[in-house]
Please model this.
Amino acid sequence: MSKSKIVAIMALIAFAMGIFWVGEAVAGERENLIVIERNLHQIWHQQNFDVADEIVAENYVRHLPGGGKVIGREGYKEYVKADMKHNWRFVMDVVAPGGDYVTVRYLGSGADPETGKKPLKITAIVIHRLKNGKMVEDWVDFDSAGYFKQLGYQLVPPSE
Model:
C-alpha cells in the first residue's frame, strides 16, 4: 500500500472519530437540555417534586445573588416551594448549551402573594452545571431592582 493511501485512510479515520466525538458532545448537550426543560416544566410549573429525585444531585448547590446558597436536593425542593408563592411561569428565552453547562435567560411572570397584583415580571439568568444527567450546581442572577420596584419599593440613595 502506498504512503499516500495510508495517509488518506488515517485522515478518514481521524475525521470519522472527530465526527463521533462531536456527535457524542452534541448528544450530551441535548440530554442536558432535556434535564433543564424537565426542571422548569415538571418541578417549577407542575410542582412534581418526585422529578427532583431523578434530575437533581443529592449534593446540589444553588448560588443566589448576595452570596446565599441552597444546599442539597431537599433544600432545592423547599426553595422551589417557597418561591412558587408568586405562582411563577417561566419561559426559556435564550438557551446556550456548552458541555456540562447550560446557560438560560428566563422570562417570568407571576403575582405578588400579598396583594395578588399581577403581573410581576422578572428576568433571570441561570448557569446550570450538570453531571451524569443531574443538576449539580446553579448560579442565579435576576433583576432584583426591577422586581422590588414592581412591589412598590423605591431605590433611595444613602444619606451622607
